[in-house]
Write a structure and sequence with these properties.
The protein has 750 residues and is an all-beta fold. It has a domain of 182 residues: Immunoglobulin-like (Sandwich), CATH 2.60.40.1190. It is built from 2 helices and 42 strands. A hairpin with a 2-residue loop joins strand 15 and strand 16. The longest helix has 6 residues. The chain starts with 40 loop residues before the first strand and ends with a strand.
């Protein structure tokens, strides 16, 4: 890939205000006073949905909806007297921050399968998300839409224009189309969310419960977006420059067909992943922020129990099979559309050096169709990994049945097949969940899972484990209707027993989980959880070298108090106690402080100390070591937004681990750990990551990034008598410098 020119011509910084409306008759200024609003559909019966009391909202809200040739026009007027605190910090796109805000969620096909959420804060912040599987949010997607905010004495208001091109949708059969919509509003000072219907994302059914409305159908307009990028990275550790260029293309010739293509997509490096130090046997899951892999990805978002995904896009361009280094992607193509009553999607990805057996190739195909109250689907994946001489495919058939508003039944049948170095392996699996909500106060859910011993969908997807069978039941009881003078607003209790075992018939530790969620009239919440497990075996901890018996124990006792913003401060305090190892305890307090000295500046500090008496780690084979552990995690997040569309963010994370007094164990008869005389030594872990990022948004799909990043990791072995405390480790973070680079990236859409 050729290097970039030494200089990049960057347009001068512009004074940025809300985008002027492009729709005829709509002046996008946040004030819904144009004549077109007179014929709008009105939604004004807002009820409290968090906490889920369904009481009338504290302050009235009115939402307006119009269908225009350009897209859906939305206006939301939020009454809020001056004596009610207005929480309006500025924030970057998709930032999770306490603020007065409104949301518009729309299911363009009105079938309850997929929706898009558009959020605007009083401080002019925005976020957009894809909602799939009823209530699974993906904030990595960034759509192209317009908005404006206006603030008055006794209210504030928002106007939005959501183009028809923002998503693939089925063609309308006549002059109107049926869509699903939901409007909601968050009053930050009270921690209250109210919605235009009795729906909440915390309940089993959400998208399928949106209000169905008829809107005028307009002839589809073609849409073409070409978004090239260029970047230059300078390595401050090893020296040298790395120049890259690529392009994303989004083409929508009609309302029911969309093509996405990418040449050398490489946009994820401007976003820093959270720092992780992992000793677990299960792979850590990371989200994906590359535009190509977030655009119209909802049709491929097929999930399984245990946080599994049949399509995990971080596999594409992830660590290669040869050296474990990140792979480049030469090209990727994605098709989305509908035809003959089916929704379909196709995804193909080709990594660099595939012809030299170093890269990989991936292919995904998806079909969906509604038959009355039943939604049926099929997903097929294929991966070719030449370095391993491995070809793998997965077939999945899924179904969602909604017979009436009380029931939601979903399930899936899976089959995997892989051939590696001439040896074939096949596996099967299936799961089913049935959610029943007889009324607002009660929710019940039954889940059955079977993953065969040889089921494997990790080549394209994310699978926590195979050889797994589970039966679980959860029941939720919600108490509302407290007197107006009562400090309580709602109280929720939930109980969930779990029985699970592997395919060899060995029982994993049965669990019982009890939890509560208390919401107060001040907006604060008090949440707690108790998880207890009985005797069973752990068949993952030894990485396939035998099972370990786990005696009855307290898996978790957690209590958290969360206080929304009051004045310039918001905070969260809590802690967890648990048993671990052979017979030890661990204590983990947590504290988060969020400071807003000004609306354009915020600082968040998080601290997670941990004290552990019996931290059990697998070493190799049947050898384990128990340590006394001291651990600290610190997160610092500083955001400064001096002008709209300007963002300066500092993110720093540190994890330090200090161990001592190691004791060696071997797996003995019956799976019990027996103390041994193997030589083991204590160790420390010192890991630090920092990113300073400036972002300027010229306009939709036009962004400039200047990023400085630094990180380091150290895990030295020590002698038995050595001791280094957490303070010593923290003092060494200035010497941690495995990576350090400066990145400049320009993305300019046409």
């Amino acid at each position: 890939m050729p290097l970039l020119p030494r200089c990049l011509a960057v347009p001068c910084l512009m004074l940025l205000t809300a985008t002027a409306g492009a729709a005829e008759g709509l002046r996008l200024d946040g004030i819904p006073d144009e004549p077109l609003w007179r014929d709008a559909q009105v939604f004004d019966d807002f009820r409290v949905t968090s906490p889920y009391t369904l009481d009338p909202a504290t302050h009235p809200t009115r939402a307006l909806l119009r269908s225009l040739p350009e897209g859906l026009a939305v206006a939301i007027i939020a009454q809020q007297p001056r004596d009610v605190p207005r929480v309006k910090p500025r924030a970057g796109r998709d930032a999770n921050v306490d603020a007065d805000r409104v949301n518009f969620s729309v299911d363009f096909d009105g079938d309850g399968r997929l929706a898009y959420n558009f959020m605007v804060t009083l401080g002019h912040g925005i976020a957009d998300e894809v909602i799939s599987n009823e209530n699974s949010y993906n904030a990595d997607w960034d759509g192209v839409w317009e908005y404006a905010v206006h603030e008055d004495v006794d209210h504030w208001s928002v106007e939005m224009l959501i183009p028809w091109s923002v998503a693939a949708m089925r063609a309308a059969d006549g002059p109107t189309r049926t869509i699903g919509v939901n409007f909601d509003r968050v009053l930050a000072s009270r921690g209250e969310r109210s919605a235009s219907g009795p729906v909440s994302y915390t309940r089993p059914r959400y998208v399928s419960e949106f209000a169905r409305v008829e809107v005028e159908s307009h002839p589809p307009r073609g849409y073409l977006s070409v978004v090239p990028y260029v970047s230059l990275q300078h390595d401050l550790v090893h020296g040298g420059n790395d120049g890259r260029a690529g392009v994303d293309v989004f083409w929508k010739p009609s309302g029911h067909f969309q093509l996405s293509a990418a040449i050398n997509p490489d946009f994820g490096q401007v976003e820093a992943d959270d720092l992780v130090v992992d000793f677990d046997a299960i792979e850590v899951f990371f989200s994906d922020k590359r535009p190509f892999f977030t655009e119209n990805q909802g049709i491929f978002d097929l999930r399984t129990p245990g946080s599994g995904r049949l399509v995990y896009t971080r596999r594409f361009g992830g660590p290669d099979d040869a050296h474990g280094r990140a792979s480049d992607i030469d090209a990727a193509v994605k098709l989305n559309g509908s035809a003959a009553g089916f929704d379909y999607g196709t995804l193909a990805v080709l990594e660099s050096d595939y012809t030299d057996d170093l890269g990989r190739a991936f292919f995904v195909q998806r079909l969906q169709r509604d038959v009355g109250a039943l939604s049926l689907g099929w997903l097929g994946t294929w991966a070719d990994r030449p370095w391993l001489d491995r070809q793998a495919n997965v077939q999945a058939v899924d179904a969602v049945w909604r017979p009436d508003p009380r029931w939601l039944v979903s399930g899936q049948v899976l089959a995997s097949s892989a051939r590696q170095q001439g040896t074939a392996q096949h596996g099967t699996g299936a799961w089913m969940t049935a959610a029943f909500s007889p009324e607002a106060r009660f929710e019940h859910e039954l889940e059955l899972v079977h993953f065969g011993r040889t089921l494997d969908f990790n080549d394209v997807g994310y699978q926590r484990r195979g050889s797994y069978n589970a039966l679980s039941w959860s029941s939720l009881w919600r108490v509302t209707g407290f007197d107006a003078g009562d400090w309580r607003r709602s109280l929720t209790w939930e109980i969930e027993p779990l029985l699970h075992w592997n395919d060899s018939g060995q029982r994993l530790p049965p669990e019982l989980e009890l939890s509560h969620d208390l919401r107060t009239r001040s907006g604060a919440s008090w949440q707690g959880e108790l998880v207890y497990s009985w005797r069973g075996i752990d068949d993952l901890v030894s990485r396939g070298n035998g099972v370990v018996v786990q005696e009855p124990r307290l898996q978790s006792l957690q209590q958290v108090y969360d206080r929304p913003r009051v004045g310039h401060w918001a905070w969260r305090l809590g802690g967890t106690v648990l048993q671990e190892g052979n017979d030890g305890y661990a204590i983990q307090p947590e504290a988060t402080v969020h400071w807003f000295p000004r609306d354009d500046l915020d600082l968040r500090l998080l601290a997670y100390p941990l004290w552990s008496q019996d931290w059990l780690l697998w070493e190799e084979g049947t050898l384990f070591t128990s340590y006394k552990r001291r651990q600290m995690r610190l997160d610092l997040d500083l955001g400064w937004y001096p002008l709209l569309r300007h963002e300066l963010r500092l993110k720093a994370q540190w994890i330090g681990i200090q161990t001592r007094d190691p004791t060696a164990y071997r797996i003995g008869a019956g799976g019990h750990l027996v103390e041994s005389d193997d030589a083991v030594t204590p160790f420390t872990v010192n890991s630090f990551g920092l990113q300073l990022r400036y972002r300027y948004e010229f306009g939709p799909q036009r962004e400039l990034y200047v990023v400085y990043g630094r990180g380091g990791h150290a895990q030295p072995l020590q002698h038995q008598g050595d001791y280094r405390g957490l303070g010593d480790l923290f003092g060494d973070i200035g010497d941690l410098r495995d990576a350090e680079q400066v990145l400049v990236k320009l993305r300019w859409g046409f």
